[in-house]
Structure prediction request, 137 residues.
Amino acid sequence: MMPLRCLTPLLLLAACATPPASPHCPPGLQQATVAEAYFGRTSPGRAEITEEEWRGFLADTVTPAFPDGLTALDGAGQWRDPSGRILLERSKVLVLVLPGTDQAAARARLLPVENAWKARFNQQSVLTVLRGACVSF
Prediction:
């Protein structure tokens, strides 16, 4: 039996191993990255970002970056500020399905959109979620 002190380096090496590639998709489906971006509509020192402002941002920034299609949804989020208060905030949720795109490439495509939102509306952040998926159109 191998002593525990000999197994420790092997366990550490196993923990550093990269995870396996995305599973193969069933027939009729293809691999894709799904990206979700959550855009808060409360902006410091001004009224809430309006529907008209959102539509303008969608038309001049988001659509040119993702001309193949997207879905935009209304959200009702909440978050805890540094003082511990729970704040409610209306938001827009952008959902992008990007076939044949890995998560790093999806992130690179979405980052300029996020930066434009933050600059235009004085936002601190945009919540982004990336995940692998099998999709069919």
